[in-house]
Amino acid sequence: MIRLDCAPLIQIPDRDNVWHIFARTPGLGGDAWCHLVPGTERALLIDTGFGVGNLKGMVEKLTNLPVDVLNSHNHGDHVGGNGQFARAYIHEADVPGLQAIYDRGKEGPRTVTPPGEVFFFEKEDVQQFKQTEICPLKDGDVIDLGGGYEVEIFHLPGHSPGGIAALDRKRRMLFTGDAIVFTPTYIKGNLRTPHVAPALYSVEAFHKGLLRLQEHLSEFDVIYPGHSQQGLSPQYVPDMIACCEELMNGDLTVHEELATGNNVANPLQVHVHGLAKIAFTPDRIMIKDLEAKYSE
Ligand SMILES: [Zn+2]
């Protein structure tokens, strides 16, 4: 029997003791990234991937500090390894969705396909998915890691109601989960249940969050998203704002059609402005349309 240790996770060092951890997809979704951000007292692990491979074992080799998890949002490719850690911070609007995943029980997130379907791993390599403490966050909250290292939370709803970006001001790094990615930001499709507030699934709500982030544009040099290419330019923020504004003003031009693994028959409709791309559906742009459709 082949027993994976840390694989399929791969750690990549960055400056000032930050590590980026690549989590290969065990399903049909995209590969994901986690980020280990230490202070002097505690370390923050931003996202936990799919829950395949011993993430905690890897993290303990990279830092001696106690580690808390910060989930960029509540989707299965970002919370799969939460069960290995005592607690996870997450935006309050994503708490019901995270709890729903915990309640589904030990088979874990739906993103994990049966072992061996996409690449080889054993049942034992899927980490036990269990309830751990949930620590709800709000926009503007700061997590103190000691030694002047702290991370500020920016609420960026749209892709998920409680999506966030996390700003490490001392290192001038921004971590954006799936809110700002090299590939299109998905703001599309039917709402997941349970949904707390339909408004928070809209391009309009995303835009509002981006405007606050824009005020802090001079405080970071680089963006690390939850998927695909790392080390993106801060220019994504103003471009994303313009991309949202075009959609909100009724310009629904489809600049790209993207047929991905899950969407071959139904290609994503993508609106582009500069570096920024949003995969959209017309019913999830304006808050009033979402509220009319989902509020009762
Ligand atoms: Zn994701």
Characterization of this structure:
The structure is a single chain. The protein has 296 residues and is of the alpha/beta class. The protein has one domain (9-294): Ribonuclease Z/Hydroxyacylglutathione hydrolase-like (Metallo-beta-lactamase, Chain A). Helix content is 19%, strand content 26%. The protein contains six helices and 16 strands. The strands form three sheets. The chain has a seven-stranded mixed beta sheet with strand order 1-2-3-4-5-6-7, covered by helices on one side. Helix 4 runs antiparallel to helix 5 (236-248). The radius of gyration is 18 Å and the shape is globular. The termini are far apart. The model has no long low-confidence stretch (mean pLDDT 89). The protein binds zinc ion. Zinc ion binds at residues 32, 75, 77-78, 178, 226-227.
Low-confidence stretches: none
CATH domain fold name: Metallo-beta-lactamase, Chain A
Helix content: 10-25%
> Got a strand count?
16
Corresponding CATH superfamily: Ribonuclease Z/Hydroxyacylglutathione hydrolase-like
Strand content: 25-35%
Task: Note the total helix count.
Answer: 6
Characteristics:
296 residues, alpha/beta, Metallo-beta-lactamase, Chain A, 7-stranded mixed β-sheet, 5-stranded mixed β-sheet, 19% helix, globular, binds zinc ion
Break the fold down into its secondary structure elements and pairings.
Blueprint: E1 9-13, E2 19-23, E3 32-38, E4 43-46, H1 55-62, E5 67-70, H2 76-79, E6 87-91, H3 95-104, E7 133-137, E8 142-146, E9 149-155, E10 164-168, E11 173-177, E12 185-187, H4 203-214, E13 222-225, H5 236-248, E14 256-258, E15 268-273, E16 276-280, H6 287-294
Parallel strand pairs: 4-5, 5-6, 6-7, 11-13, 12-16
Antiparallel strand pairs: 1-2, 2-3, 3-4, 8-9, 9-10, 10-11, 14-15, 15-16
Bound molecules: zinc ion.
